[in-house]
Structure prediction request, 1116 residues.
Amino acid sequence: MAERKNFSRYKMRCGMLMRVDSCGRKIEEIELPKQDQYTLLLTADDIPGSNDLAFFSDTRPMMASGITAYPGQVAFALFAPDYEIAAMQMRSIGMKLSEEAVPVEHPMPEPLEYSWGEFTPEEGADAGYRTVESSYDLAHEARQTSIMYTVTAWMENSRLHIETPCEWVDLIKSAVSTAIKYPKESIVVHQLSHRSRFDEFLIDPAIVAAIAAVAVIRTGMPCEIRDRAIFSRPGIHVTRKTVIDSEGKPLSENVAMTVDMGASPVLAEEYQRQAMTGLIPPYPLKEFRASVDVRSSGLYPAAFSGSLGYSEALSATEYHISRLAEATEMTPYSYRKDIEKRRFTDYIPGFELDDQHKTMAAAASASTYERKWFANNFQRHSFGLLGYIKGIGLASGTGISGFSTTFARAAKFRSMMTYTQKHNVTINTSALNHPNMQKIWRTLISDRINPGQPETIMFLDPSQDTLDAGPDVLSRIISSLTPQLESAARKLASLKDTEPLPVSVVFDAQNTTLPCEFQNAGSATVVAEIIISETDFRPMVTAVWADIILPQMLNSASLRNAVKRAILSTVSECGFTIPMDFSMHLDITTNGADTSVSSLSALMKALTMGALANALFQAVGSGGSSLPTSSSVLEKVLSSHTGS
Amino acid sequence: MKVDCTIDGKTLSLSLNSDKPLSLIINENLGAGSGTNHCNGSLCGLCAVLVDGKPTLSCLVPAFELRGKEVQTFDGFRRTKAFKDLEKAYDAVGAYPCSDCYEARSIIFHSLIADDVTDRSEILKELSVIKCSCMDPDDQVAIVKQGMAIRSGKRVRRIQ
Amino acid sequence: MLDGYSSQASMDRNIYEGLSSPNIHTPHNMAEYASIITHYPEAELWAGGTFLMSRPDSYPSRKMGREIISLASMEELHRFQRNDRFAEFGAMVTLDEVMSTGKAVLPKVLLDNIRSIGSRLITRKATIGGAIATRELSTTFPGTLISLDATVEIRFIRKKRLHSRWMQLTRMLDKNGKVSLPPGGMISRIRISFSDKDCQYFTSIGSVLSRPSEAVAIAFTASMDQDVLDNPTIAFTYPDIGILYSRDIDNIFSSLRFPLDEGEFRSLEQIVFTFIDSSIQELSRLQRARTSGILRAIIDDLNEKSLTSPAS
Prediction:
């Protein structure tokens, strides 16, 4: 694979992007300073191929063409001999957008509905029934982060090279290929290391790479574009009504989730399936009705943000369970101790909740949850007297990973494992680029085919024949590909002795034969304790307790790190600060079950959000429990409580 | 303007805009392999380098202040024994900074270990300049202490 | 291999090179400074550069033909001296140096202010002179120095000659609460008298740089004599607005008898906010609530002190 060249900066062009801030506006005029041979301005009209980025079944115009399609859309790119000149020229460019917005239509799927059973109140018994309602909000948010990234494109021996951080190599190739009408096989992508905690390197780098590639064609020089990673999350609103009997047992439930995905929705149908999975509660119900309605708006297009709906929906469910508990005057922990089994649904199988109970008991005991819950409730109205207010929240759930079975079947992401005549094993996949992960997988595969010889397992370098294993999102590469690799290795181990060599096994990158949309794997509980001071109104998380039971652990240290990062990132994302005396108590154990590994990051995100929302509710009540929170929101809520 | 300085052991004479921040110089003028974040004024803390041995946010250092200075970027630091020791400390504690802040945090960890800072609040205060919430405060303190233990272990061996 | 601008010339580059590169002047003493500032009265003074460099889009500069005077080489601005009555800092003494050289002797309120900044990566770079002279946003330092009754030496050009004058920092506040310097003026030294004020509080909430409209800082110094305050001084800093100080408010504090009950606290709070509202246009709701919270914390502590101090 060609290494990235150390280009002479004299012979390359540096690009910057101008993005629009609203959708449906007509670009009436772009006032340009005098251009010369050293600068290049690119608009949608300069793209020789298609301006549309295809992402599964969705398409999104990369650059604004006449009318802006979404906020954050690239209006134009400016290339100059260096970034200083590009920046100065960019400042002198004026862009006039129409004042009136033209409605931009986005085809949206019908609301996804799911239900079972019917509940008819027994005659004479309805006097004891009560309805518990909750409303859970997570605001849409989009912002440029402080993380700078650079995408470089250059041509060498009729191959176009792209260097970029990215989560899906094939998307970069497709975007570039269609933009400059260049064969996909002649495009080489060099992946830069990145963290991508908000999936910020999934879609944007493909657009930036396509623009850089157009610039390479136009200038005949290597071109790079510097941009800032964008954090973007959909807004959700969940309302839920549950009818409970006189003992607090839920009988029927109606839940409606609306999702604001911004101006250019991505994978709306898959979002609905994932969200529905999170909305289904763990407790038994005689009747359940749920709907997930995805809508578009004029806001910045929401991207994946470490989750595609499951985390958000699960946190809403966890929030509601605590409201049910309070309605029955029990602590949330005591309330859910008696729920034994989850029912089988189209979205998630039925299973015993023993492991979840164990994690709840461990986290509740380590955090002295019950005692603190009662103490905080007692002090809830003493804000002015104490000078602070505290809250503690608990959330518990099970993990899923990757895309739904329906989606995986349609997408057909594949990889291939071959046993060669030299008795080596080669793996052809676009995933697994990380050296540490390759090391773990080598051991896993060699244990099944060539025990004790991990050096005989080889991952093929990216080439035109590389099979696309799909994007590295929702922890699917680690979670969903692992069992598929293991199963392929088992199959190959028997085939190598019966078939002529070389022998290959082509396998799906994700399980496509599950009876439900998702498989549950792993259980966890998170308890979060918060404090809000009367002096500064800063929401602070003082401690987090997390207890996790997993089927297996590939690498304990990296797993612990991933869990901690997911919790801490979610805490910040929800608007909380972490004081110096913050403590985190984490316990991860395995139960040896033969099920797949879940996306722990998505589960931790869900449970941390749920625990924080519950802690906020205890501290400030329903008026201030929307996420993300802030000092100004809390000040308003608390001032209304104290009447000051 | 011409700026004579040493970056990662190489004596350089760079012709630069006089107010160009060091973070951009590292990204644009030092060839492939060198790089650090440039947050354009949001003080993200991810561009820390060593200037004359002290950790410094490179976005706050203009080119004209570089004259005669010795700069060590993470690219230079990763080739030192001190970095190998720091990696051992990461392994021993079982905690690692994420890829966003790995470089800057490693440089600050190194300076805390070199300066023998043991006070928890001092350690966390120094690291608070990095606006990336990927690490547990307890782990960060443990890494600094572990780093000191590794270093003092080496000293003891040398004396023996 | 390095690929800096120092390699062979290129036609592409030369036409642009130096377009926005400011001229840097590095005087070594006051005479050289005087000569430069006389030639370039509009030149920008560069102390630590922390504030200037941390503004969004600070590079490349929007201004063409910028002249910058870097004060880093002026030896006399780096001096720190003290005797039994006062401490005197050159404007280029960094906050880290203030902290390390004066830890044992300097007033708590100043040390707390430096501690509140956090990382030494910032305090090693930021200078005390620079922290006072920022214009766009107010840092917390002028307020703290006002509470310590600090005086500053100003160097300024008049009739092409460099003059010097010592002024109380309070007198440098303009009507908007910003520290104002005469054109071409420079703060060269800061002097803080040692006092035996035993009640010193510095509280800063929120980020001056990233969320100035939510940030508040209050610096308060006084001595407590039985149940009254002797020589109290209080300064409020709202980074997006300015610094608020009034001798009238100090006098109100002098007239208080501790401990204050809830009603007395409410009246004090009302007086303070009447003063704030009459001085500035718009205080954000959160700044108001935080001001009130800090004030309450100070009064609570003073109440406690008054109750526990031995009767004379």
Observations:
- Residues 414-508 of chain A form a domain with the Aldehyde Oxidoreductase; domain 4 fold (CATH 3.30.365.10).
